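Hello, quick one for you while I still have it in my head. A protein chain has come my way and I'm curious about its shape. Can you walk me through what the C-alpha cells say about the fold? No rush at all, and the record is pasted right below.
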Amino acid sequence: MSFGKPDRSGVLFVVNAIPRTLSPLVRPYMQDQNGYPLYLLDHSVVHTGTVVPQALWSPQNVNDFRQHVSDASLQMPIFFTHTNGTLGLSLSDAANGRYQTLRDAREQAQLGGKVTTHIRILVCGAFSLVSLRRTCR
C-alpha cells in the first residue's frame, strides 16, 4: 500500500504483515483506518534538498555473498526519519552525534540480533567511499 505524505513531499510505502520472526521486534510505523498495524517499507521522495547519489552495493566475493545474502535473515529497513516527518541525516550531524530529533532516537535499531553494525554509504562521483561507523553500547 502507499500513502501520500500530508506535506506532499513524497509517498510512504507500507505493508500490513511482516515475518513472524520480526513481529515482536519491529514497531508499526502507523495504523490503517481499522487500527491494524502498518510497517514502513520504503519512501518515495518528491521534494528534496541536497541528495548525494549512491551506488548500489553488491557482494564482491563468495564470503560476502554468503554472509550478507544467502545466510542472512531479511530485516526491515532502517530510515533516518525525524519526528517532524522529514527524511535524512546530514553527514555533519551523524559524525557529531546529533541525532536527538530522529524518530525513536533513544530506541535500539533492530539489527537482526546484533548489537553493532557498519553503515556504508557508497557515493558516486568525486568521492569513492564514505564509511560512517557508530557503535551502540
Remarks:
- Helices lie at 62-70, 91-95.
- The chain is about 10% helix and 20% strand.
